[in-house]
Automatic annotation (TrEMBL):
GO terms for biological process: phosphoenolpyruvate-dependent sugar phosphotransferase system. Keywords: Cytoplasm, Kinase, Phosphotransferase system, Sugar transport, Transferase, Transport. Its main location: cytoplasm. One of its GO terms (molecular function) is kinase activity. Transmembrane segments: none annotated. Residues 1-123 form the PTS EIIA type-4 domain. It comes from Parvibaculum sedimenti. Pfam families: EIIA-man (PF03610). One of its GO terms (cellular component) is cytoplasm. This is PTS fructose transporter subunit IIA. InterPro entries: Bacterial_PTS_sugar_comp, PTS_EIIA_man-typ, PTS_EIIA_man-typ_sf, PTS_IIA_man.
Length: 135
């Protein structure tokens, strides 16, 4: 099973895990790393590596961050060469729900592709959808 490690600004990571589990039920091999403004970033990098090790059963780990270019994303990217991981920036709930359903049978590459597709698919502008103009 592919592990998941969420790395975000503030408590967003733990709240995303709670929301995902609210929808799909309890999940194994999922870790949350919440980055605060006063954190020791080298310690947080070590925390990410520990979380990756905890979440990895041999199939790899997807690190999900809130925003490309932000500190959480930069920290996640900095560990890519130390483990079998992929980093996806711009995490959202549809992406997590998709990953929960495919991570026990998909390859790491397939899972990140499906997550990206789901994440994009469910970004909608309600007024346009209701007017029949698409997303």
């Amino acid at each position: 099973m592919i592990g998941l490690v969420l790395v975000t600004h503030g408590a967003l990571a733990s709240q995303f895990v709670a929301a995902m589990e609210h929808v799909v039920g309890a999940q194994r091999q999922v870790e949350a790393i919440c980055i605060g403004p006063d954190d020791d970033m080298e310690q947080r990098r070590r925390d990410i590596l520990d979380a990756v090790a905890s979440a990895d059963s041999g199939d790899g780990v997807i690190l999900l961050t809130d925003m490309f270019g932000g500190t959480p994303s930069n920290l996640a990217i900095s560990v890519m060469d130390k483990a079998k991981v992929e980093v996806i920036a711009g995490v959202n709930l549809p992406m997590l729900i998709k990953l929960a359903s495919v991570r026990d049978h998909a390859s790491l590459g397939e899972a990140v592709d499906l997550a990206q597709e789901s994440g994009r698919k469910y970004i909608s502008i309600a007024s346009r959808v209701l007017a029949g103009d698409g997303a």
